[in-house]
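Entry 14. Two folds queued back to back today. First construct below, sequence then structure tokens.
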Amino acid sequence: MHIPHNIGIASQIGKYTDAQEVSGHARWLFTSGTPGLDEDGNLPDDIIGQADLAWRNIVHMLESSKMTMADIVKVTHYLTRESDIAEYVKVRSHYLGDARPASMLMITPALVKPGFLLEIEIIAAQY
């Protein structure tokens, strides 16, 4: 069971939970950093296109593990441009819906491949 622990910080910043506790015996899914790249190597030029593809990739990984967004307990978001935060948050919110995993967003000067504007990694748990 996922047990959210909110101390009030998250509610001041965005739609996430301050902490998630996973009790009992769970199946875990840890993803690598997932960019907005499709299976043919195509990379959109803009943050909305890349964010949408990255989240679709996350959904695909969850579905292939018979999990859903509700099973995500932690998300780490890496963006290369602070100016993309507002647009990225709209896409993230669309995909997460009512799910409120623990979350960290970091601005980094670069990612592994030129042109990557973001990468997302998740941790999910299911009973």
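Second construct, same run, same settings:
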Amino acid sequence: MGRASTVRADPTDPTEPTEPTEATPRRFLSSYRDLMDVPGSWRLATVGIVSKLPPSMVSLSLLLLVGRSHSYGTAGLAVSALAVGQGATGPLRGRLIDRHAPRPVLLSLLAMYLTATPLLVLVVCGGGSIVAVLALAAATGASTPPVAVMMRSAWHGPEGSPLYGDLTTTAMALDSSMTGAALITGPVLASWLSLSVSPVAPFAVAALLTVASVGLLINVPGPPSRPARSGHRLGPLASAPLRRLLAAEALFVTAVTAVDVVLPIYARQHHAAGFTGLYLGILSVGSVLGSLVLGAVPNLLSRGPKVSVLLCVFAAGTGGLTLATGLSPHAVLLVCPLAGLAIGCTFAALRTTGGDLAPEGPVTETMSWLSSFDMVGGAVGAAVFAHIAADGGSRAALLLLPAVVLLAAVLGWNTRTSKRG
């Protein structure tokens, strides 16, 4: 009784097939094994890793390069121009990918990127005007091939494909974990190359990696995008649930960026500046692990509003950080891993839901809108919460974060779709 057994129609016939009466329990990491068994997944994962390093390197590299010949205020403006150029044109580049063959669009953007980047470096090293530096920084961002964004649409398989259902969640979780890992390793590599080799070296490495990622992606069998024209002039933005998800995404990234900005200010205000790197490092590692955990259990909260539930968990994490700041810097260190886990899970869930809500065809454009709203949220979070922390104290800034995240949870509550199970 209670043990798994098999039943044969005729016990004396060894050729009769057996039927298990109980399903074999799935192992914790079986979802990743199933994902990697899908033909082409290893190549997509390789493209994903390669494509995520350049964006994580360029901002810091540009800051260090411009800061050598201009003021750091000008360097900050150059980094902002780079982000504005990339964020403002992201949906347009995504639309071009969706409506045309990816190969010529990617190669055209790559040619422009490989022209703008060396010109930017030459103008900065030659002591060019601030206007020229800002214009070329914006052009570099605007011409960046959207390989990392295309990877998210590539992982979103259409109905009936191997990458459908729970495997989509696992794939997007893997993609988010790779993004988190790149945000750790990219700046470290960029600073080492800039300070130990040459200020120009990280730009050369980023360009080589960009070329490699484009080369790998355009040779993947079958186009990763699904060309189709949207029937509405607003494209994916015609979807009300998607608009709410984008607003939730922006608020979430605002809160995440605020945590990254406020914790170093808290450490300095409480004479624990040495903890700054530990705070941010543990948050990043926790985010990577959180993404991987969600991918290992892709059916987690499958019957509920996954995004909003995870946002509420993150709101609790930010509340825990706020309480810990009233105790000691060491207490904050203990709460950081839990907040990081919630960040990684939520990012993966937002990406999966964004792809689910994309109209048939413009998946890359939809993912580009998500990335653009990430940049908007990041800019607002850094500017607003740094100001609040500097004037009213870091704890006052952290006290506002649960409200911001809960507002995101409210907006994301009814964004589920019936396209996927």
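Quick look at the second one. The longest strand covers residues 6-7. Residues 4 and 24 are 9 Å apart (CA to CA).
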